[in-house]
Amino acid sequence: MSLLSGVSDFFGLDIGTTALRLVQLHGTGPTRALVKYAYVPIDNKLAVSDAGTDQGRLALKVRELITQSGMNTKNVAVGLPSQKVFTTVVDIEHLQKNELDKAIRYQADSLIPTAVDESKIDWAFIGESPKDPGKIEILLSSVTNSFVEQRLDMLESVGLNVIAFEPDNLALARALIAPDSTYPQMVLDISSKSTDLVIIMNGAPRLTRAIPTGTETIVKAAAQNLNVDDKQAAEFVFKFGLNKEKLEGQVYQAIIGTIEILTNEIDKSIKFFQARYTDSKIDRIIVTGGASSLPEFPIHIANLFSLNVEIGNAWRNVSFPAERQNELTAISNQFSVAAGLAERTE
Fold it and tell me: Are 291 and 188 in contact (CB under 8 A)?
C-alpha cells in the first residue's frame, strides 16, 4: 500500500508486539548494503492498543528508536501486523488494468471482511489462474481506514514521512526467500501473539495466514500444566522446548497439545495450497522468530511434514563487513520484517 513512489532513501520499521525494530539499507539490485539497524523493547500492550495515551507512549518509543539509531532520513516503510490485515488470492476475469481496478472494488464487498468504504484496498497481479484458464489470479489486501490513519497520525507526530504500508508477512517473505527462487516455499514466524504463515511461489505470495497461536500461548500451556509461574515456564520452554529427553519429557508433554493446534493449521495450509496448485509441491519450510528459537521445533516440523526445514536468515539479501557476521547472526530471527521492509523496491 504505497503512498509515494520513487523514494530511494528510507528505512523499514517493524512495530512488533515486544519491540520496535528498524533497518536501513543502501544500493540497488538483489543485494544491498546494511547502513543501520536498531531496536527498543516495548510493552506488549502498546502495539495493539487504540487508546490515545498508549499511542502517545508508542510515539515516544519510536522517537527513542530514531534517536538511538542516528537515523537521518524521515522516510519510512512501515509494517502492518498480519492480524490487522486481510490478504487473499482470488481469481478474476481478464480485463484492462483500469477496468480490473473497478471490478475488484465492485466485488470487494464479497471478498473482504470489512466494509469497503471503511477499508483501504490494494491488489497485485500474480499470474494466470491455475483453476480457470479464462481468469487471472490477484493478491488482494485490505485494512481498515481507522487503523492505518491512527498509525499514520502516530508516526507523523514524530516527524516521519510514511512512504508505504505493507503487511508484515509479505515483508517477512521478501527478506527470507531469494529473489530469483521459483519453487514453492513456506515461511513460518512464531511471534508472541500469533504465527505468520506465508507460502511463496515464483516470487509471489499464494497463501498468507495469521494463526492465533504464539509463544505466549505455548508458555501459558507450560505454566498451567507444570504448575509454575509464567517466568519459570518461559525459561523451561526456551531451554528445553520439544526435547523429549530433558526433564523426563515434562516440558514436551506440557506444550505438545498447543504445538499440535499450530501444526494442524500448518497441515491445513499445505493441503489448501496443494489442492489449488496441483502441479506444485512445497519444497521447504523456512522458520524464524519463535519457530527457530524453540528447541527441537524445526526438526519436529521436518519430521511431521517430511519437508526440508531451514532457519531463516534476515540478512540473506544484505551485505555487511565480515567482522559483523556473529553480531548479526545472533539477532537474525528478530529482524526479518524490518529487513524485508527495507528491501522494498517500490
Answer: yes
Count of domains forming the chain: 2
CB of 80 within 8 A of CB of 168?
yes
Q: What is the DSSP letter of 42?
A: -
Q: pLDDT digits over 214-264, tens only?
A: 999 999 999 999 999 999 999 999 999 999 998 888 999 999 999 999 999
Residues 123 and 247 in one domain: no
In this structure, the answer to whether residues 139 and 253 fall within a common structural domain is no
Distance between CA atoms of residues 206 and 110, nearest Å: 19
CB atoms within 10 A of CB 263: 17
Name the residue range of residue 137's domain.
85-144
What does the block give as the cell for 232? 519459570
Residues 132 and 188 occupy one common structural domain: no
First to last CA, the chain: 10
pTM for the whole thing?
Answer: 0.90
219: its cell numbers: 508458555
The string of pLDDT tens digits covering residues 72-101 is: 999 999 999 988 999 999 999 988 878 888
